[in-house]
Write a structure and sequence with these properties.
Radius of gyration: 17 Å
Number of helices: 10
Mean pLDDT: 95
Distance between the termini: 15 Å
Strand order of the largest sheet: 2-1-3-4-7-8
Order of helices and strands: EHEHHEHEHEHHEHEHEH
Low-confidence stretches: none
Largest sheet: 6 strands, parallel
Structural class: alpha/beta
Length: 268
């Protein structure tokens, strides 16, 4: 079955942060790409220099952007997404546009009700100012440490911030924040689809940005679907789990799960 993978990042971290994953999957017989979000530049530096290019893009537009990327493949690929990328991966899976999906610490979909303080604090740099709806905003070194690097040494967190952190559009955060009040919210996912491919949802037990309780609530939304839906916890991991020193553990879990569900890589 499909051995092509589309890696979808979330807010505040560049698409280039997936490069170790691209190389990892290539070494295991997969072809992986990590496309940019709309308005994102080729490099971290160029994105930082022109944050306005990403301003105003919402979940529907970003999902459509990745759907267009997916249509270029001869067969539906696998989507692996982190944070808002995990939410987008679930939307694409619910639309039967990808063969399988791995949602790593996914941003909350419509219907997820828990709202822990840590999650609110992590989102406050954007949600604290309504004008950020139409802006692109990055995290300071300190804000990144709380939202992403809280399980890391200060040195590693700061290093990740310097290497990968970028401004991102604020609109998706506002859309998720209001999702349970708007029936047609772009944060809605078709969780009842029984014809979709398999889905793995994972959570870091120490995540501040998308806490474990929120990810568990998303997983429970799939209880009415007979399609394969699995859950995995990464003990002691925070939101940086796809980019910090423990990322190979996360990649190994995703690859093993894909193989178990009929998506093994071809011989490199």
């Amino acid at each position: 079955m499909a051995a092509d993978i589309v890696l979808i990042h979330g807010l505040w971290v560049s698409h280039t942060s997936w490069q170790p994953w691209v190389e990892y999957f290539a070494g295991n017989g997969y072809r992986a790409i990590a496309p940019r979000w709309p308005g994102e530049a080729d490099t971290v530096e160029a994105t930082r220099d022109n944050p306005g290019a990403q301003a105003g893009f919402g979940l529907d537009q970003v999902t459509e952007h990745f759907a267009a990327v997916i249509e270029q493949f001869p067969n539906p690929p696998i989507a692996i997404g982190h944070s808002f990328g995990g939410l987008i991966a679930q939307k694409l899976l619910g639309q039967n546009k990808v063969a399988a999906a791995v949602a790593i610490d996914p941003a909350p979909m419509q219907g997820v009700k828990p709202l822990p303080f840590a999650q609110l604090r992590s989102a406050f740099p954007v949600l604290g100012n309504p004008l950020n709806w139409s802006r692109a905003k990055g995290l300071t070194r300190k804000q990144f440490r709380y939202g992403f690097g809280n399980t890391l040494t200060e040195s590693e967190s700061d290093s990740l911030w310097e290497k990968w952190a970028i401004p991102s559009p604020g609109k998706p955060l506002f859309e998720v924040g209001t999702a349970n009040f708007i029936p047609s919210s772009p944060a809605k996912v078709d969780t009842s689809n029984t014809s979709r491919g398999p889905l793995l949802i994972t959570a870091g037990t120490a995540d501040h940005t998308v806490p474990l309780v929120s990810v568990r609530a998303a997983f429970k939304r799939y209880s009415k679907s007979s399609a394969v839906t699995d859950f995995h916890e990464f003990d002691g991991h925070g939101h940086s789990l796809t980019v910090d020193h423990r990322w190979p553990e996360v990649a190994d879990v995703a690859r093993s799960w894909l193989a178990d569900n009929g998506f093994a890589g071809t011989n490199p």
